[in-house]
Amino acid sequence: MSKLLYRIGKAAFDKPWAFIAAWILIIGIVVAMLGVNGMSVSSEMKIEGTESQKVLDKLEKELPEASGGQASVLFTAPQGERLDTPERIAAISRAVNKVYGLDYIINPSELAAAAGAELSAEQAAQKDASAETAQDGQPAGAAQGTDATSAANAAGGEMPPYTQLMIDGQPVPGVLIATDGSIALLQFQFTVQQNSLPQGVTDKVVDAVTESVDGSGVIALPSDSLKATEVPIGINEVFGLLIAAIVLVMTLGSLVAAGLPIITALFGVGIGVGGAFALSTFVTMTSFTPVLALMIGLAVGIDYALFIVNRQRRLIFDQGLTAREAAGRAVGTAGSAVFFAGLTVIIALFGLLVIGISFLSMMALVASVTVFLSVLIALTLLPALLGLLGERICSAKAREKHRLKAASKQHGFADVWVKAIVKFRWLVIIAVIAVLGVAAIPAVKMEMGIPSGASANLDTSARQSYDAISAGFGKGFNGPLLIVAESNNSAGVIAPETLGGIVQEIQKNKHVSVVTPLGMNANGNIAIFSLIPTTGPTDTDTKDLVKELRSADSAIAKNYGVTLGVTGLTAINIDMSAKLSEVFPTYIGIIMVLSLIILLLVFRSILVPLKATVGFLLSILATFGITTAVFQWGWASSLFGVDTGGPLMSFIPILVTGILYGLAMDYQVFLVSSMRESYVHGHRGRSSVIHGYDQASRVVVAAAVIMVAVFAGFVMTHDIMIKQIGFALALGILIDAFFVRMALVPAVMALFGDKAWWLPKWLDRLLPNLDVEGDKLIAELQAKEAK
After folding, report:
1. Among 7, 49, 506, 769, whose Cα sits 20 to 30 Å from the Cα of 325?
2. Where in this chain does the record put each SSD domain (predicted)?
3. pLDDT tens column, 147-162
4. What is the torsional sign of CA 185, 190, 193, 198?
């Protein structure tokens, strides 16, 4: 491996413009594709195989109108005023009529007319389950006009704090108004899911509503599902790059050398993320997909180039090599470590594919390709850029400074630090385990879900809308459930009295606010209902309600001969959390086994891979513990722009574990391969640990600081999901690099000494020698020099 990379590095150094032109051409192709195809991102997070998705798939086949996405608009009045004045009711009515007149939106009145249900307004308000069934399976008509009186009667309780909005004695379809007149809620349904809507449909809805209420004093707040899906990338990420640039200058001592890692990293993310956007019109891609690729691409792109440039400069300073020869050897030795470090990251990301969740698979593929490009660029474009610089990579001033330092035989902080760790190795091991163990305690109480308006910041429209709906109608209106009742006998028909009985049985549950029949399919064997819980979308009681409704042993299933399915955004989020928790152990097992094999090949040791994995488990548990304390419990959350606690995003454990495992193994490879190199070249026992640490620690610390800075830049974004991911990754790198790799690893290595490199002889013969340290390459070069 090292010989091949050495030849590639020398070729790129000798013919820089050929390699540079090739990469510029690739960038040009990506830009051209973007110009032709445009880009499209979706908010859809489809979880195949879950109960809620199965119900949606069935509805799409049997009752396609009912499988469409839902949206809402909240109307509010100024403080201390009411909405139910003639002028404001008229404005809201205009808004509703305009919305129902748009394409791709179900109009309840048209559905009723098509079904031949020409009922008077008074009859419509009083209709029961039997009358709805007579509409021959047309969905959504009554759903959007929940009758408060009927709901109260069905529940056998007191009147709810809302009713239908009326104009000239007629109900405004789909609009509920709080009894205090402060807010009104329009709920409606699309004919298809939001990600299938043509571009501009949601914008027309928002425009229709805002134009209709303009000048009336009514404030319209569209739901998040009506807002255009944007890539949550902003100016905050630039701050991370600026910090990275400062660290590079401090580490390399040269503006010219510091600029190279940033240039190569930008090439990598430009091609990786740009290519993903160019293909986004052909595949479904969530808004998180390019963000993840950008996060990882910037971090590893800068780090990988830093390792190679630092190695080249060391070879020039320490051995007096020419820039050309040093570049070739740097690519051959440090480049080998870069290759295998990148491979561990790619394996960790590819592990997401086995989960079988499409949006996670797409995220993994785009991020993996971006990492692969970063490795290729570090091994080809970087030496080409070094070829353009030539001997200027190390200025005369820098060479003289290094010569004087070497002559004085001064030892830096790293040498003092590692010698202290070696001396007090038992104390260091116990202290690191204790600190990380305490930090991991909150992880026991970690709750998974999808952050909603309930956990959004107080100054956001999402939070204001959530709070207003909760106060005026109840928390459950923020997350309605869609219930599907299917006759156990495929040829059977659900009778009107059965519908009524199902409604009354569901209404008995203390966590149910309102149940409304929506209609049936043409065969009469599938009925759908709208259910408003009394609790919020992320509350534990709502999860228990969904589980109870789905139970095959429920009274409804036994007494009415039907099977209940539950779907809707709230149910989908519940199922997503459950599915991800179920596959998490399998995912961890796969990536760890594959990565252990790679580490075994790289280090030719049994202990080192096992130690690396145990150290990572400590760091990831501590990461989840602190993340839970900050985002769920609210500890010091104001420092990170969060003012309300809530559940952690359901796919954070899998996503963060996979990414951090790959990146943690990067530092393991670079740090311990330096110790291995010292051992191979004659240092023994604790001396190899100290010498290897001295050689690699400075650049590993710089790389870790850069990664933390890049990920921390995403913490300041407005999107709570991206904020949580950025925080967890930045914190995880901080813990793993400085507590585990910089402290625990040298302490354990010193504890075992030369035994750390023990490998059974039979296994040593079976394993291929990858020559990551470049021992064979150096021997070959020395033989040539001797001739």
Report:
1. 769
2. 255-388, 587-751
3. 444 444 444 455 677 8
4. negative
DSSP lists the bridge partners of residue 42 as 286
Q: Which two tokens stand for residue 429?
A: 């091991």
Residue type, 749: M
For 255, the 3-state DSSP assignment is helix
Decide the pairing of beta strands 648-649 and 448-449.
parallel
* Residue 539: domain span: 51-228+481-567
Phi first, then psi, for residue 635 (nearest 5°) are -70, 120
Rounded (to 5) percent helix, strand, coil in the chain: 65, 10, 25
- Using alpha carbons only, give the angle 140, 142, 147 rounded to the nearest 5 degrees: 145
Q: What is the rounded distance in angstroms from the CA atom of residue 572 to the CA atom of residue 69?
A: 12
Contact present, 544 and 511 (Cβ < 8 Å): yes
Burial (CB < 10 A; 0-12, 13-18, 19+), residue 787, is: exposed
516 and 503 both lie in a single domain: yes
Please answer whether residues 373 and 392 qualify as being in contact, where contact means their C-beta atoms are separated by less than 8 angstroms: no
For residue 332, the tally of other CB atoms under 10 A from its CB is 27
CA 614 to chain centre: 25
Q: What residue has token string 């789909």?
A: 174
Residues paired with residue 185 on neighbouring β-strands, in sequence order: 74, 176
Residues 428 and 382 in one domain: no
Rounded distance between C-alpha atoms, residue 353 and residue 361, angstroms: 5
List 286's β-bridge partners, or say none: 42
Give me the count of residues in the chain.
787
Tokens of 383: 């030496």
pLDDT of 671 higher than 70: yes
* Helix ranges restricted to H, 551-606: 555-560, 569-603
My answer on whether 717 and 634 are in the same domain is yes
Q: CA nearest 665: which of 600, 743, 580?
A: 600
Q: Within 13 Å, how many C-alpha atoms sit on residue 488's CB side? A: 9
In a domain, 525, yes or no: yes
SS3 for 672-695, per residue?
A: HHHHHHHHHCCCCCHHHHHHHHHH
What pLDDT score was predicted for residue 179? 87
- Report the CATH number at residue 336: 1.20.1640.10
Structure tokens given for 528: 């759908």
**pLDDT score of 234:** 57
Question: Percent of the chain having pLDDT more than 90?
Answer: 24
The whole-angstrom separation of Cα 503 and Cα 177 is 23
What phi and psi, each to the nearest 5 degrees, are found at residue 633? -90, -20
If you average pLDDT over each of 60-69, 125-134, 355-364, 402-411, which comes out highest? Answer: 355-364
Write out pLDDT tens, residues 733-759: 999 999 999 999 999 999 998 888 888
**How many CB atoms neighbour CB 637 within 10 A?**
16
Indicate if the alpha-carbon torsion angle 165, 170, 171, 172 is positive or negative.
negative
**CA-based nearest residue to 453, from 538, 576, 566, 513:** 538
For 118, how many CA atoms within 13 A lie in the half-sphere containing its CB? Answer: 1
**H helix runs in 38-85, sequence order:** 51-62
How high is the mean pLDDT of the chain?
Answer: 82
Contact yes or no for 374/342 (Cβ under 8 A): yes
Please say if the pLDDT value at position 776 is more than 50.
yes
441 and 363 both lie in a single domain: no
Whether residue 471 lies inside any domain: the answer is no
Task: For residue 653, count CB atoms less than 10 angstroms from its CB and return exposed for 0-12, middle for 13-18, buried for 19 or more.
Answer: buried
Quote the pLDDT of residue 114. 47
Helix axes 720-735, 686-712, angle to 10 degrees: 170
Is residue 349 domain-resident?
yes
Both tokens of residue 683? 């240092």
pLDDT digits (tens, 9 = 90+) for 600-627: 887 888 998 888 889 999 999 999 999 9
Q: Is the separation of the CB atoms in 297 and 714 below 8 Å?
A: no
579, part of any domain: no
Q: Are residues 89 and 193 both part of a single domain?
A: yes
Residue matched to tokens 């990600």: 195
